[in-house]
Amino acid sequence: MNFSELFKLSGLLGRFSPDGKCLASCVQYRLVVRDVNTLQILQLYTCLDQIQYIEWSSDSLFILCAMYKRGIVQVWSLEQPDWHCKIDEGSAGLVASCWSPDGRHILNTTEFHLRITVWSLCTKSVSYIKYPKACQQGIAFTRDGRYMAVAERRDCKDFISIFVCSDWQLLRHFDTGTQDLFGIEWAPNGCVLAVWDTCLEYKILLYSLDGRLLSTYRAYEWSLGIKSIAWSPSSQFLAVGSYDEKVRILNHVTWKKITEFEHPATIANKTTIVYKEVEKSPSVETERLSFPPTRALASSRFSTQSKYDISQVPVSLQYIKPVADRANPKMGIGMLAFSPDNCFLATKNDNIPNALWIWDIQKLKLFVVLEQLCAIQSFQWDPRQPRLAVCTGNSKVYLWSPAGCVSVQVPMEGDFQIVSLSWRASGDSMALLSKDNFCVCYLEREEVK
């Protein structure tokens, strides 16, 4: 493993381009585009205000920079650095902005969710979509980029509109059986749309592309409901995480539950491997150290190193009881993600913030638990193989694969607290992001299968 030097960053805005050749990062109002392999600056763009959101176009030729405070979006071209586009929503304001799958249209959501404006970069034409719903995940595109679903709210009812992305014509419009729709997400094959209700009611509805209701699933009533969902890459399974600390797996044939995964504070099953992170005292080989050691070497050598031990079951995990009288309690399944080969599901139960659970989807049982010293901030699967990267707000990055688990200290000066990470599309490097800095971690060729 090799690490780059630290670069400045603001707002956790560091993104690899979809083709994996470039890395864009923001420092206040500046957008910096680097070559991923050399980290040489390819382009430097100056925006009108502090950048709050960036997104690459699907073909990696354009970058969108949104400045929500000023209601402005600026678009920059990598091929023609002198060309740029400015979209000003004026008094309507701006709360969200994103690319369409073709990379030539931009969808802006105005303040108070009054409308979505579709701007064409090619023809400069404008289209409007009325009544978008103010919810966590109200726009969803199919993976092939042909269709877009939009959650709408009118006359105190929830609706879904499905549009054809090539000409923005309305294909289907139907109401949903939700009290207060919270999110929508297409299956990867683009055939089924999952729609789920507010956390006050456990309800998930599955619709076909032509608006037919295929199934409704409710696990229980009168308690906090769905917190997170994830489709498997094959579209065969839908994992639904909820506030009762369980993940339920629905199958694509009958849309019924085939199993549920519980997240208890005690791991008792002897077939489950529990990796426990433990501190280890730094071993300093004095004859190999230069004196005085460089600051970076000294800080990495003398900082707290850690390693994984395999714990003997039963193992008791650190359980935090949520505060009952506060909104958005830290309880239930807050994060879940399938591995790219459909073999594993990683989950995090917010009641046990230091543990990561990895489930074997072929056998439908718990495979591994990682017990960290600090609360897990973020995790992401390698896009090419079943390998999981984890960060916990310290200067280490953790990697798990079926072969085992490793803790790697990032050799940096000062305080580099990694709170987010993202893989390059090829799986041979990843960006490690802290509040004010980022670095790139390059994996050795033999580590990339």
List unreliable stretches of 5+ residues: 295-302
The count of strands amounts to 41
Helical run tally: 1
The residue fraction in helices comes out at: under 10%
Distance between the termini: 14 Å
Outline, from the CA principal axes?
globular
What does this protein look like?
The protein is mainly beta and 449 residues long. Helix content is 2%, strand content 48%. The longest helix has 8 residues, at 295-302. It is globular and about 65 Å long.
Q: How do the helices and strands line up, and which of them pair or pack?
A:
Blueprint: E1 2-3, E2 7-8, E3 14-16, E4 22-27, E5 30-35, E6 41-46, E7 53-56, E8 62-67, E9 72-77, E10 84-88, E11 96-99, E12 105-109, E13 115-120, E14 126-130, E15 139-141, E16 147-154, E17 157-164, E18 169-175, E19 181-186, E20 192-197, E21 204-208, E22 213-217, E23 226-231, E24 237-242, E25 246-251, E26 257-262, E27 266-267, E28 273-280, H1 295-302, E29 305-311, E30 315-316, E31 333-338, E32 344-349, E33 355-360, E34 365-371, E35 378-381, E36 388-391, E37 396-401, E38 404-409, E39 420-423, E40 429-433, E41 437-442
Parallel strand pairs: 28-34
Antiparallel strand pairs: 1-41, 2-41, 3-4, 4-5, 5-6, 7-8, 8-9, 9-10, 11-12, 12-13, 13-14, 15-16, 16-17, 17-18, 19-20, 20-21, 21-22, 23-24, 24-25, 25-26, 27-30, 28-29, 31-32, 32-33, 33-34, 35-36, 36-37, 37-38, 39-40, 40-41
